[in-house]
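Friendly challenge for the regulars: who can give me the structure tokens for this chain first? No prize, just bragging rights.
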Amino acid sequence: MYQGDVCVSRTSTVGFNPYFHSESWMEEKMRLKPELVEVAHRVRRVYFFGAGCSSPAGKNQIGRSLSQVFTNAEIQVDHDLTAAAYATYQGAPCLSCILGTGSNACYFDGQEVYEEMPSLAFILGDEGSGSYFGKKLLTAYFYRQLPEDMAADFKESYPELTARTLIDKVYRSERANVFLAGFMRFVVKYRDENIVKNWISEGFDLFLKNQVICYSQAREVPIHFVGSIAKILESELQQSLMKYDLRLGQVIAKPAEPLAEYVLEYLEPQR
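First reply, four minutes later:
Bragging rights claimed.
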């Protein structure tokens, strides 16, 4: 939270997505944060950027839940891709990508955000993301395709996980994408194994083919990334970009600070 251009308070919640979460659930999670509840009535503007907020319905759902907590605030809801574009903007047109729990990409000319391809989320899309690599690991483990020592370590690390509990987690959980991405720590641990190297290379290649090269400007502007996967696997990402003659720009694991700077510099003065 900011007064003028000074940050006076910070907090965090679980991620909110209108496709997976009800308004009451989101309100409940916000009210679990006393530092939010105590000052909510004094907040005059709220900027929210999140997955699932590209449609009017998604924006309205998030906006209604926020308005239940921030009762005196003007609320602006926008897509997480817009946040990625704002956070990486350096005064010139660019491509901005998300590689975190999910994946997506957009072109930002400094005025408008353009999305060439839709995001198909973790079941059909999200190539190169944490949920994508989590699926690769789980499929290989249960199909007995992992190297013996890696499989033994997985079994020891996740002793309660069976095919039945896995199906429950993936097909009945409100946060299945987050569950899948939670296995990235294990994936990264074995990033030098050939099977994992192949997953990473294939995942990034698919992301670039499906979400980046489709932009006519792709080879003319820097390709920026936000998200933990891009940061952790930056060297592998750079290798994939070089295959397609693409130029790596910024890689930011947590875009909250540069996003806030953009809002204060470009959006707040328009108020």
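The first strand starts at residue 2 and ends at 3. The radius of gyration is 20 Å. Your move, everyone else.
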